[in-house]
Structures are given as C-alpha cells and as structure tokens.
Amino acid sequence: MTRGSVGPDRDHFTGGDEVGGAAAPLEEELLLLSGLAADEGIRRHAGRIDDIHGRFLRGCGLARRASPNAPPLYLQADIARNLFEYLWTSKPRRFGEHFLLTDVVDAHLDPDATRTVGNCIGLTSLYSVLAVRMGLHLSLLADSDHLMSRLRVGSRIIDMDHTDSLGFDRESPAGFQELPLMMLTASVLNSRGLRHEREGRLTDARADYERALGIHPSYANALNNRGNMKLLQGDMEGAITDYTEAIQLHGESCESHCNRGMAWQRLGRFHRARQDYLRALALCPTYDDASRCLRSLDRLEGTSSA
C-alpha cells in the first residue's frame, strides 16, 4: 500500500563545473543522499563519475568541457544522443533495482558486463549528472510510477526513457508532468524512505518522506507514504489528510483510496471506509488489498449488527 518513487526550485545551475572533481549542486545532493560523508566521500565518488565522463568524452572524440556555458544549440541534441547511447553500449543490461547514485556509479563501472545498473531513478540520476557536466540543461518528466528526462533544444523537445535502449527521443506518454531537475532528489528520498520502511526504520522513513515533501510539496507518492507512517503511529486524522491530498493530486490512486479507507475504518467511520474500498476496486478491479479490506469490513459490520 506504499507508493513508489517517481516525481524549492534549486536546479538553476550551469553545467561544466566538474573540473577537478567538484560536484554540481544536483550531483552533490545525490551523493549526499547516497549516504556519503561530506567532502572526502563526495570527492571520491565524484572522481568515479569523472571516470565515466572521461570515458564518454574519449569514446566520442570530444574535448573535455570546462566551460560553464551550454554547448551551442546545434551540438546539444548530438551530445545528448551520444551520451545516451554510450551508457547503453557500455552496460547493455542497465535496468535493475539501484536508485542511489553511488550504487549506480559503482555498478556502471563494474567490469562485469552482466551486472545491472539501476532503476528509472538511478539511471535518470546518472544520465542527468553527466549531462549537466556537459552543459546540457535537462528537466524531469514524472508520473506516479516512472521518471524520464527532457531536453529542450530551441523549439525541439527530446524526451528520454533511460530504462529502454531505444528510449532516446521517445514521446512521453500522457500524464507525465515536467518538473525542475532537482526534483530527482525528492524521488530518491521517497525511495529511501520506502527502503527504511521495509527494514522497520519507521522514524527514518517518515523523515525521508517529510524531506521529499519539503522539496516537492505536491508529490502524491510521498504524501501517501507519509500517510502510512501516520496510520501506523495512530494519527488517523493526519493520515486521512495526507491520503486525501494525494487523491486530489492523483485521483486514479487506488492505493491512497484503500489506505484512507483503513483510516476511516479505524475511526469507526465504516460508511466512508466502504466508499473508499469500493472506489479503489473501481479503479483497480484486481487490487487484492482493497478486496481484503472490504471483506474485513463486511465481517466487522456483520459482527457489529449481530
């Protein structure tokens, strides 16, 4: 009943500031979220990103960029495509489970060509930090389940799905929202919160959901997941508030309807609970959690009326 990760405007930075291993704001934030201690740990992994960047430049015969300015418009689409194809060619089995930048970088540099690299968050993160080093200005495309990249070159829009080797210049499906690139950090925080939750660290999970919402206040997945923490901690009204806001932002969320139904049920508001379970099943007829909750409510109401 948790929602996966995928979606202050802090992405206004210039590319090319990678010389000497200095990390751009997005890169530094993603490394910090990976659990690195400041300074030494960041420098070490920035050096590993330098390695990937240098291999790409040598493979393409490009001079190392040290300018804070974006490359000329006529070069940007080619640089973006070459980078996309380089990453896929150098590690063809890319799609996996890693979402933290350090894990993705380590997997990409692993000589084992069969090792997977990352999920949509991890792959988008790696591409983004390398593109920023090249002076490209990307934005993020997000729906409730997936992330992509967008590059605007003059009037041309190039969308990229990093989980598919044929995903360069792919038209994004309906329902994707364009966001500032720094919103990637909110997706990482939401995923990290989910991992904390699975491992029983509920306080850490809630803290990450709170941080994700501090960056992206309208992040429906993080609202749903913070609502789950409030539910577990006995704050039914607070959970209902979060679920309701998630539903308003993403009305097709069967998970948030089902979760809100559980909160209503615990408050004894059985009619409201039933409405949410039925709405969840109307949206997702095979959603087992909602079916189980509805059967539980049927038994409870049967006991109450006996």
Account of the protein in words:
By secondary structure, the protein is an alpha+beta fold. The chain is 56% helix and 7% strand. It is built from 12 helices and 4 strands, in the order H-H-H-H-H-E-E-E-E-H-H-H-H-H-H-H. The chain has helices spanning 25-33, 40-60, 73-90, 101-109, 120-133, 184-198, 202-215, 220-232, 236-249, 254-266, 270-283, 288-305, and strands spanning 138-142, 147-153, 156-160, 177-179. A 4-stranded antiparallel beta sheet has the order 3-2-1-4, with helices on one face. Strand 1 (138-142) and strand 2 (147-153) form a beta hairpin. The relative contact order is 0.11.
Task: Throw out a few tags for this protein.
2 domains, C8orf32 fold, 306 residues, Serine Threonine Protein Phosphatase 5, Tetratricopeptide repeat, alpha+beta
